[in-house]
């Protein structure tokens, strides 16, 4: 597990950084609307740049560092996963399909028999 020393509680710097991140994100939305007549390519490039800047600033905060650690831990766990082979996937898929068909037939039979029983008990054979 990756460890990074982070202090407890938000500091003034963190609050200022989060304010700046929020300002950039609001600016992105407002800027996209304000510059709606500008080329879409330029707006996308600007969006990517400022969104990257906002993410970079957010990662400098205590909460951002914790999210980054969580991300690194998740990547490490994904590497540990045993991914099934194609043959294992196909065998499991066919087993699941066979069970679905078998249960479908079983439930249809039970429904059919119960319907017949209810009709016989209520005397509605002709209806």
Please summarize what this structure is.
This protein is mostly helical and 127 residues long. It contains four helices and no strands.
Characterise the protein shown here.
The protein is an all-alpha fold. The protein has 2 domains: 12-80; 83-127. Helices cover 77% and strands 0% of the residues. It contains 4 helices and no strands. It has helices at residues 12-34, 40-58, 62-80, 86-122. Helix 1 packs antiparallel against helix 2. The protein is elongated and about 80 Å long. The protein starts with 11 loop residues before the first helix and ends in a 5-residue tail after the last helix. The model has no long low-confidence stretch (mean pLDDT 90).
Report the radius of gyration as a whole number of Å: 30 Å
Main sheet specs = none
Which ranges are low-confidence, i.e. pLDDT below 50, for 5 or more consecutive residues?
none
Alpha-beta content class: mainly alpha
**Quaternary assembly:** single chain
Topology:
Blueprint: H1 12-34, H2 40-58, H3 62-80, H4 86-122
Helix pairs in contact: 1-2
């Amino acid at each position: 597990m990756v460890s990074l020393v982070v202090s407890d509680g938000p500091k003034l710097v963190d609050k200022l950084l989060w304010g700046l991140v929020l300002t950039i994100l609001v600016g992105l939305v407002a800027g996209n609307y304000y510059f709606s007549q500008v080329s879409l390519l330029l707006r996308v490039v600007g969006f990517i740049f400022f969104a990257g800047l906002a993410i970079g600033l957010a990662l400098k905060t205590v909460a951002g560092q914790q999210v980054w650690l969580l991300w690194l831990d998740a990547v490490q766990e994904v590497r540990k996963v045993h991914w099934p082979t194609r043959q294992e996937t196909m065998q499991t898929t066919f087993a699941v399909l066979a069970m679905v068909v078998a249960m479908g037939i079983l439930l249809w039979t039970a429904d059919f028999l119960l319907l017949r029983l209810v009709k016989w008990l209520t005397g509605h054979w002709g209806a």
